Amino acid sequence: MIVRRQCCASRPxxxxxxxxxxxxxxxxxxxxxxxxxxxxxxxxxxxxxFGLHALKRRGITDTQGNREERQEASGHxxxxxxxxxxxxxxxxxxxxx
Length: 97
Description:
Elements (H helix, E strand, L loop, with lengths): L5 H4 L14 H17 L11 H11 L4 H8 L4 H7 L12
């Protein structure tokens, strides 16, 4: 069972004009329009452009907590799928010089 924090579970990131969560069919073109506008207005450069998957990866990588807590927050049930999105670097002890 996945327990999500109340603040995040009921608040979608992208919403329609009515305030409801955007459907997948509406999200993709909205993302493209938002990205095109950000490029046109100089908010981002072409090199800084990123997609929705990159946003998900960054969110999972930047989430605070240990590996199990971050996997639970991501909603991924398997460690293999979580590993696809987790770009965090492992913390290792320095070698003795």
